[in-house]
Amino acid sequence: MTVLTPPYLGNTWLGLSADPLPSALVAQWVVLVGCGAVVQFSGTARDHSKDRPGVYLLKYEAYEDQVEQRLAAIAAEMRTRWPDLGRIAMLHRVGEVAVGDPAVEVAVSSPHRDAAFEAARFGIDTLKATAPIWKHESWQGGASWGLEAQHIVEVGTGNEPDREPDRESDRESDRESDNELNSEPDRDEYRDEYLAKARR
């Protein structure tokens, strides 16, 4: 699934690629004359994570056949929840990603800002919770899978994120993420468990 040029027809652009993500093109494409709000989230590779200073490389691995279906399901759910959405773009990298480069892009346009902000947040949160994509980090002290391991859930089951604006909850979530090292799950176990189920 490599779609790094926007669709000729239609208002949904989904892609998974080893090539650099076209962030500027996403920003241009998502604009529609009937939409007064555009929200774009760019998730870039940072140079550290909890107790992992000097991160210099990320590598993403994906179960590509399933990712395409999950991205399409997320986009469909977004349009159900926010029917006035104009365009939706969701692109994710696989392979090696250098620090500072974008690993994921989620962008939406809408007539009004509230729907645009909420839909974009739902899009990135649900992508992280439902798409079988795994992150491997290389840092000064070693290399291992990312610390944010989670069980992958289905889109539309009620188990995916259901976000309302809540900055205090966001701060609490960030604190909980910082504490995950104390009970770090085995990233290989999650990945292998998912792949085994998907192949049945």
Explain how this protein is built.
This protein has 200 residues and is an alpha+beta fold. It has one domain (12-198): Molybdopterin biosynthesis MoaE subunit (Aldehyde Oxidoreductase, domain 3). The chain has five helices and ten strands. It has helices spanning 23-29, 64-81, 113-130, 167-178, 187-198; strands spanning 12-17, 37-44, 48-49, 52-53, 57-62, 88-93, 95-98, 102-110, 133-139, 142-145. The protein has a four-stranded mixed sheet, with helices on both faces. It has a four-stranded antiparallel sheet with strand order 7-5-9-10. A hairpin with a 2-residue loop joins strand 3 and strand 4. Helix 2 (64-81) runs antiparallel to helix 3.
Question: How do the strands and helices of this protein lay out in sequence?
Answer:
Layout: E1 12-17, H1 23-29, E2 37-44, E3 48-49, E4 52-53, E5 57-62, H2 64-81, E6 88-93, E7 95-98, E8 102-110, H3 113-130, E9 133-139, E10 142-145, H4 167-178, H5 187-198
Parallel strand pairs: 1-6
Antiparallel strand pairs: 2-8, 3-4, 5-7, 5-9, 6-8, 9-10
Helix pairs in contact: 2-3
